[in-house]
Amino acid sequence: MHTPIYELALGADFARLQPELQDYFSLAPGSGHYGVGEGVFDVVGCRQPWLRPLLLATTGEQAFFPEYGEDVPFRIENHAHLDPFGRSSLTARREIFFPGRTRLFHDTTSFDASGSRAGLVDYVGRYRRLVTDLNLSVTAEGRLRGVSEASRLFLGPLRVPLPEALDAKAYAEQWWDPAEGEHGKHRIQVKVIQPQIGLMLVYAGHFDYRLEPYPGGITTPGFLPGGARPDRWESRV
Fold first, then answer.
1. H or E element in which residue 24 lies
2. Exposure letters 169-193 (e unless 16+ CB within 10 A, then b)
3. How far are the Cα atoms of 59, 95, 132 from residue 105, in angstroms, in the given order?
4. Residue 57 — very low, low, confident or very high, per pLDDT cuts 50/70/90?
5. What is the pTM assigned to this prediction?
6. How would you classify the pairing of strands 88-98 and 144-155?
């Protein structure tokens, strides 16, 4: 059995996560299961009307979207697998059910040990053209915090690092709230902030989570269902 990528990245700190978070982040390639989360975003999207036309132009990437809403249902699937380059990875496919339109948001997070610092690298969008390093930490309460750092664009053969003045950083926090609902729920909060613009995107909400078996009992470590596969893979970091 492969080690889950968040355990690889956090090392001994993985044991400091809330037990429910350890369960959530323990999905590993070859387990024969995938994760399904269903819940509601209290807030989700872009709050600034003037910024929405720019985000509308990027919707084909299936990573950003111009809508904003409150109490918006969503669904996420998590698939642990080996990517085509042999890296242990977690691909997430999110569906956000705005009134009259469903938006998709895809990414693949891979554990990469090829450079001087082993860690998680996040490939965003259906073409995986935007790439960021993830810096993880565990709070005193056992919550998981993550910050995206040092973004790059891959445009054909070009690798284009985004300067700090233009780069947008995502600040994420996930935790288990035992007081939410009848039996407790997972909660997540993410803010994407650009230095010149400010808050670009936000989503925060709660969800229930379960594991489902792959059809036919598939346990191949490299298996990824067709609906979760990107239109293009990227090996560069």
1. helix 19-24
2. bbebbbbbeeeeeeeebbbbbbebe
3. 9, 7, 16
4. confident
5. 0.95
6. unpaired
Rg (CA), the chain: 17
Residue with tokens 């609902």: 181
Strand partners, 208: 38
CB 5, CB 91: distance < 8 Å: no
The tokens of 111 are what?
A: 């554990």
- Can you list the pairs that 187-192 forms with residues at least 24 positions away whose Cβ atoms lie under 8 Å? 192/168
Query: Tell me: the pLDDT tens digits for 104-162?
Result: 999 999 999 887 678 999 999 999 999 999 999 999 999 999 999 889 999 999 999 99
Determine how many CB atoms are found less than 10 A away from the CB of residue 51: 17
**16 is written with which tokens?**
């400091």
